[in-house]
Specification:
alpha/beta, 29 strands, Rossmann fold, about 600 residues, five-stranded antiparallel β-sheet, 2 domains, Jelly Rolls, 11 helices
Length: about 600
């Protein structure tokens, strides 16, 4: 994956170069194609008997028996590749190393062959490399127009009268961080999830040091003759972190959107980008999930900022990690990408349950580079033309040097504006669910003052979003109905036909299970929120019409479970929502729960 100063899956897309306004000359790379990142030397394989991390436990990988390994080897031989076990990630999938980098289409063919030979494989897919998404920028400006401008700005200052982000943790999943005067006291303990030592560029693999050693690359260093021109270090994560939570009212530098929030820096991108599997583990860990071999995150993040991505469909590995993060209460904010194409081909912005962010310029119209489409939720200032987003940076062209500031442009820059507003909302109402945050951001966004087709519902309005959070959010209100038994199977599921419906249900016994059916309109996202009684632990699952699991939430006793599922098709699509007993009370009094279904 790449960063989204433009972060997008660089595996198949152009890597938008980062111009940082400090003389590094990175802006010259804006048109470089990420041919080298259209390759990978790793493949992700998840067997059906693997168990993902759940309820605070660790993932359990499936045993790779001699028979299974032989099938993998035979599949590899067909394509001239050898397959070697590497490690297990938090979704229960296993990473296998190949004997050198191969084109993505060849690794996809290998994945298909593996699945054809071994029906015990749930899925296999390339471990794609992502990169950051910034486009070329113009010189640094002394004013943060992107916060205050009445036309193209975030309308932020009046939001600060009611919230500054206190008590909220935001994970910046990116290139790591550089210590900076304007980030002093804002950074909590992070983690470096990069497993590949070349990409890491710090002499080792995963460790607790999330600092950024630099991601400068020489001509051809990423493979496939890419890049064609040398690129200086981007310090991308430091720039993103400054937009989220740079110190404010300290007479130094710039202000942050949620300047009293705290940042957990999580390093997943280095030289030439970063692997999908590392990013998935970072999503899990940042949101409070367990990752084998990694200490627990003492500062669980409620907001995850992913200013990164690339082209292609949302892969199962990333979707599973996002589902897990959402089940733990984290809202996942993702850059749409900078390829000026439909976001349906940009991952992870096209994954279900994320807040996908397009970029606008000072006029409030779509930035020339920004991706667009029906999967975009909202837009935010990302810069365009002669107006850039200014934030914290480092002056080093290769290795770290001194603190400085610079203007960048990209959906990578728009995304932390939205992540910061989400932190402002959670600061005034900590019980907001990811779906409530997304719904409020969309419903309170202001109309575009200039052309922005396919940019979501509008430009995020910080003040209106905070006011909505104080008022309780904007989840639709519908009728309240009672569960009707028997509804223990797909065929007997209770039909819910009105958005905003609240179902009063209960478990008659510990073996009871309840199904509810929603015929989800095209282009809509189903939000399911299940609230158990205080002494019980019930879980929430969503399936398609074939009974395939699409999403789940498995929080603990008394905790609310929430999940979502998007219908990206052109016709209505059936979803089955299932509530399952795990532990606690049963009966009409002790087994109560409520389920709210909205779309």
């Amino acid at each position: 994956m790449c960063a989204a100063v433009s972060l997008a899956l660089a595996s198949v897309s152009a890597v938008a170069g980062v111009g940082n306004g400090n003389g590094n000359g990175n802006g010259a790379q804006a048109s470089a194609k990420a041919v080298g990142l259209m390759e990978t030397d790793r493949i992700i394989v998840k067997y059906k008997d693997a168990v993902p991390a759940a309820k605070g436990g660790l993932a359990r990988a499936a045993a790779v028996s001699g028979d299974r390994k032989a099938k993998l080897d035979r599949a590899g031989q067909q394509f001239g590749m050898t397959v070697r076990e590497s490690h297990v990630i938090s979704t229960g999938a296993q990473i296998f190393k190949l004997n050198g980098k191969r084109r993505l289409e060849d690794v996809r063919a290998l994945a298909a062959e593996m699945m054809a030979r071994d029906p015990s494989i749930e899925y296999a897919e390339p471990d794609r490399i992502m990169t950051h998404m910034a486009t070329a920028n113009d010189p640094m400006y002394s004013q943060q127009w992107h916060y205050t401008d009445s036309v193209g700005g975030l309308r932020l200052p009046t939001a600060w009268d009611k919230s500054t982000g206190s008590g909220v943790v935001v994970a910046v999943i990116d290139t790591g961080y550089r210590p900076h005067t304007d980030l002093s006291g804002q950074l909590l303990q992070g983690y470096d999830f990069i497993t590949d030592t070349f990409i890491a560029n710090d002499g080792n693999g995963r460790d607790s040091d999330a600092s950024d050693p630099g991601d400068a690359i020489a001509v051809g260093e990423c493979g496939g003759g890419q890049p064609t021109r040398a690129q200086n270090s981007s310090w991308h994560g430091t720039h993103v972190a400054g937009t989220v939570a740079a110190r404010t009212n300290n007479s130094v530098g710039v202000a942050g959107v949620a300047y009293n929030a705290k940042i957990v820096p999580v390093r997943v991108l280095g030289k030439c980008g970063g692997y999908t599997s590392d990013i998935a583990d970072a999503i899990t860990w940042s949101s409070g999930g367990s990752v084998s071999g990694v200490p627990a995150n003492a500062n669980k993040a409620r907001v995850l900022n992913l200013s990164l991505g690339g082209t292609g469909a949302c892969d199962a590995t990333t979707q599973n990690a996002i589902n897990g993060a959402r089940s733990r209460g984290a809202v996942v904010v993702v850059a749409a990408g900078n390829d000026a194409m439909n976001v349906s081909n940009a991952s992870p912005a096209n994954c279900s349950g994320v807040v996908a962010v397009a970029a606008t310029g000072k006029t409030g119209g779509r930035a020339s580079y920004s991706n667009y489409g029906t999967l975009i939720d909202v837009a935010a200032p990302g810069g365009d033309g002669s107006y850039s987003v200014i934030s914290t940076l480092n002056s080093g062209t290769n290795a770290p040097a001194s603190d400085n500031y610079a203007g960048y442009q990209g959906t990578s820059m728009a995304t932390p504006h939205v992540a910061g507003v989400a932190a402002l909302m959670l600061s005034v109402k900590s019980t907001l669910t990811p779906d409530q945050i997304e719904s409020s951001l969309k419903s309170t966004a202001r109309a575009f003052p200039a052309s922005c087709s396919g940019c979501g519902t509008g430009i995020v309005d910080a003040t209106a979003a905070v006011n909505a959070a104080i008022g309780g959010g904007t989840t639709p209100t519908g009728p309240t109905v009672n569960e009707t038994e028997s509804n223990n199977t797909l065929g007997t599921a209770n039909l819910v036909s009105t958005s905003g419906t609240t179902v009063n249900g209960y478990f008659g016994s510990s073996t009871d299970t309840d199904y509810f059916r929603v015929d989800l309109p095209a282009g809509k996202t189903l939000s399911a929120v299940m609230t158990p009684n205080a002494s019980s632990d019930y879980d929430l699952y969503v399936y398609n019409s074939a009974g395939t699991l699409l999403a789940s939430s498995e929080n603990g006793t008394g905790a609310v479970d929430s999940t979502s599922s998007a219908n990206t098709g052109t016709a209505a699509s059936t979803r089955y929502v299932r509530v399952v007993y795990y532990s606690g009370g049963t009966g009409a009094t002790s087994g109560k729960y409520t389920l709210k279904l909205s779309w």
